[in-house]
Design brief:
Helix content is about 15%, strand content about 40%. It has one helix at about 1-20, and strands spanning about 30-40, 55-60, 70-75, 75-85, 100-110, 125-135. Strands 3-4-2-1-5-6 form a 6-stranded antiparallel β-sheet, with no helix packed on it. The longest helix is centred in the N-terminal third of the chain and has 19 residues, at about 1-20. The protein starts with a helix and ends with a strand.
Length: about 140
């Protein structure tokens, strides 16, 4: 009989705790999540290659409500969700690498400035600031 009383008390506590948390809004992160492929590297800096942007096609896990990037054609291939970023980790600076990002996006397109090579190859695209990234396998 004592076990039934203890079980009833624990069950009542569980139900009260569960019901008190039902009025909370779900967690909404203050960043975006996207996935994509590394497509290319801009050629701008002769002295510091870490200062160059990398082009990423954000077509992995694409939903119609998430239109992060811009459209462009690169090497004869059309991309709908292309962005550029300087925030890739060294091990992810590989063309064709499939990556996942927690990030923020610029609201407008960004021009690459301060190039130190004679004929820079740059693109006018939205910029992604990477918070966290990882490889998708």
């Amino acid at each position: 009989m004592k076990q039934l009383h203890i079980f009833s008390t624990l069950f009542l506590i569980f139900v009260l705790v569960l019901s008190s948390s039902c009025r909370k809004d779900p967690y909404v992160p203050d960043y975006d999540h996207a996935g994509g492929y590394v497509i290319a590297k801009e050629a701008c800096s002769a002295t510091d290659p870490n200062n160059d942007y990398w082009l990423v096609d954000l077509s992995v896990n694409y939903t119609a409500s998430n239109t992060f990037g811009d459209t462009m054609t690169y090497n004869g291939t059309f991309y709908e969700h292309m962005i550029k970023t300087k925030g890739l980790l060294p091990q992810f600076k590989v063309i064709g690498k499939k990556l996942s990002f927690d990030c923020h996006f610029s609201s407008t397109k960004v021009a690459t400035t301060g190039c130190t090579i004679a004929a820079p190859v740059t693109y006018f695209l939205k910029e992604m600031q990477v918070i966290n990234s990882g490889e998708i396998r």
